[in-house]
Amino acid sequence: IGKNGAGKSTILGLLAGVIKPSSGQVTINGRIAPLLELGAGFHTELSGRENILLNGILLGMLKREVEEKFDSIIEFSELEEFIDQPIRTYSSGMLARLGFSVAVHSEPDILLLDEVLAVGDHDFQKKSIEKMLGFKRSDKTIVFVSHSIEQINQICERIIWIEQGEVILSGDPEEVISNYLNHA
């Protein structure tokens, strides 16, 4: 957690390997599924269906794996009636649905999420949080950036509060959130 510009998205970019550190190193053990910004990894002129294949492969899935999970991905995204339209016609909520659905179906060890649920409707947010809690029960790692204290409380076992690229406090959600809210 932290204010806009604190460095939260930068950390996710470092973990995803999209940004290289200016010093030190980042070591990742496992398969990552990053959802860092809406539409990242999607080609706007391709249909939702074509982008599922493209994005699934970018996330490390084999073509046959993506094809085996096609129906589940489309069903979870709830975009059946739009799936053959170019994604340039999709709203930001629809992009979030498609991106999240592909990411969670790639069965990552580490799921990186940067405010992607902020644009989804309430029912999809609820379904997505349930999916993340399932990942958590499976001992998967979720790195979740959000301004929603309610969602953070639901999902996180540990919180890191960042200001200007520096860790202010790390640890128990109740303690970190309390200090963060009292500071704001």
The proportion of residues forming helix, as a percent range, comes to: 40-55%
Helical stretch tally = 7
* N/C terminus separation: 12 Å
Can you write the helix and strand succession as a string? HEHHHEHEHEEH
% residues in beta strands: 5-15%
So what's the overall shape?
globular
Largest sheet: 3 strands, parallel
The total count of strands amounts to 5
Rg calculated over all Cα atoms:
17 Å
User: Oligomeric form of this entry?
Assistant: single chain
Instruction: Tell me, rounded to a whole number, the average pLDDT.
Output: 90
| Uncertain stretches | none
Biggest sheet strand line-up: 1-2-3
Describe the model.
There is one protein chain. The mean pLDDT is 90. The strands form 2 sheets. This protein has a 3-stranded parallel sheet, sandwiched between helices. A two-stranded antiparallel sheet has the order 4-5. It has helices spanning 8-16, 48-58, 63-77, 92-105, 122-137, 149-155, 173-183; strands at residues 32-35, 110-114, 141-145, 159-163, 166-171. The relative contact order is 0.16. β2, α5 and β3 (141-145) form a beta-alpha-beta unit. It is of the alpha/beta class and 184 residues long.
